[in-house]
Amino acid sequence: MTWVLKDFQELDTAELYTILAERVNVFIVEQECPYPEIDGKDDEAFHLFYKKDGQIAAYARLFRAGDYYEEASIGRILVKEDYRKQTLGRELVDKAISVLRDEFNETKIKIQAQNYLREFYSSFGFEPVTKVYLEDDIPHVDMILEL
């Protein structure tokens, strides 16, 4: 049971395979949303994940300012179904924010949140900066956190 932060080159083949499989399971299969999950940005990201019982239970992709958006960003946030409703999602977002703030000295974080999670992200201080829009037929809203 440990949090791991690696850049793309540090990921071993098994970790990368598991990360991509979990992202496909959550974002494409569970949400019934066919879209290009492998978007060519993983090699620029930092990969934050929580390993438990030999599995990746939670995951997020982190970018420094300028690598994805003008601001730093957190994306592909997921908790594997077996580990949901155990506060792991809250721990994941807390850890992602602290990494970007404390290790990378970022001052602003942008997320593309699914609208139904707006209250969850607001509880961390994220504020909406766009109206709700459809991204792959799912209502989203862009949100910013000033650190």
UniProtKB/TrEMBL annotation:
Domain N-acetyltransferase per the UniProt entry, residue ranges: 6-147
Instruction: Please name one Pfam family that this protein belongs to.
Output: Acetyltransf_10
User: What GO molecular function terms would the record report?
Assistant: acyltransferase activity
Q: Which InterPro entries match?
A: Acyl_CoA_acyltransferase, GNAT_dom, GNPNAT1-like
Membrane spanning residue stretches: none
Which controlled-vocabulary keywords does the entry list?
Answer: Acyltransferase, Transferase
Reading the lineage from the top rank, the first entry is Bacteria
Which EC number(s) does the record attach to this protein?
2.3.1.-
EC top class named in words = transferase
**Which PANTHER family does the protein's record reference?**
GLUCOSAMINE 6-PHOSPHATE N-ACETYLTRANSFERASE (PTHR13355:SF11)
Q: Per its record, how is this protein called by name?
A: GNAT family N-acetyltransferase
Organism from which the protein derives = Evansella alkalicola
Q: What high-level taxonomic lineage is stated for the organism?
A: Bacteria, Bacillati, Bacillota, Bacilli, Bacillales
